[in-house]
Design goal:
Length: 275
């Protein structure tokens, strides 16, 4: 006769299995993109509170040109504000680096393109991976060293007062009828984390040695043009500049969308030797 007293799965005294962590539902249009193409890879990175929607035209342009393309959905993005409040720079940078390493393992050479915070992450990747063939930056967030202190102080005061979110920063687009798929509010704690890390990175941009295509809008209501000037003056690699005269911050969906795609493809082909 068995003396097994281990509770069975149906025993009312058995400890209940923990509830699985719910997976945040991706908003329609915010889906990541992965396209298998030729031996040259392109990693495309979206911005803060945005989603792959803002970079999809550029990613598709790379794919149509025969590149192998990866465009990840960064943690906390493209789902809900509550989800984003649980994430920070460590999550976003880890996701971007994982996507890069996966792409680099499958391709001979890789270029990386980013918008806004995606540009910050692109610079961060280039500082860690000098083998990157070249980077494409569109209105990158890279504050000159020390200039973020006042903003950080103000944001921290809001957080200390109990405020969780503030006005949205998405859809800064000059073209009528075009809207970016982004959150309707800006989460304060993740924004503080972004500023702290962007400020730290901006002081060591001389570690970026690959070629840089830097495209920025003179009229940008999210990231001051001074950030682009700091990047141009600080990186160690050669810099090519393109001014996006007709667009605001989310230039990849704005009047200069086609110009961005044309210049990005031309640059990517040149720095990878496939022109």
């Amino acid at each position: 006769m068995s003396d097994d007293t281990t509770p069975s799965a149906t025993d009312p005294q058995s400890p209940e299995a923990p509830e699985p962590t719910p997976i945040a539902e991706i908003l329609p249009g915010a889906e990541p993109m992965s396209v298998e193409g030729g031996p040259i890879g392109a990693l495309v990175v979206h911005g803060f509170t945005g989603s792959p929607h803002s970079m999809r035209p550029l990613a598709e342009a790379f794919a149509d040109a025969g590149f192998t393309v990866e465009m990840p959905l960064l943690p906390g993005h493209g789902t809900s504000l509550d989800h984003m409040l649980t994430t920070g720079w460590a999550d976003w940078s880890a996701a971007a680096e994982a996507a890069y390493l996966d792409l680099a393992a499958r391709c001979e050479k890789v270029v990386v393109a980013g918008l806004s915070m995606g540009g910050t992450l692109t610079l961060w990747l280039a500082s860690r991976h000098p083998e990157i063939a070249g980077i494409v930056l569109v209105n990158p967030a890279a504050p000159p060293p020390g200039t973020a202190a006042e903003t950080l102080e103000g944001l921290q005061a809001l957080a200390d007062s109990g405020m969780i979110a503030m006005d949205a920063i998405g859809s800064d687009i000059a073209k009528e009828g075009v809207t970016e798929l982004a959150y309707e509010q800006t989460p304060i704690a993740p924004l503080i984390d972004l500023f702290r890390n962007a400020d730290e990175l901006a002081g060591r941009l001389d570690t970026v040695t690959c070629p840089v295509l830097l495209m920025n809008s003179p009229e940008d209501h999210v990231v001051p043009p001074e950030h682009a000037e700091h990047v141009a003056a600080s990186v160690a690699g050669p810099v090519e500049r393109v001014t996006l005269e007709r667009s605001y911050h989310v230039a990849t969906l704005d009047h200069d969308r086609e110009l961005i795609e044309e210049k990005a493809l031309e640059f990517a082909r040149r720095v990878t030797g496939t022109a």
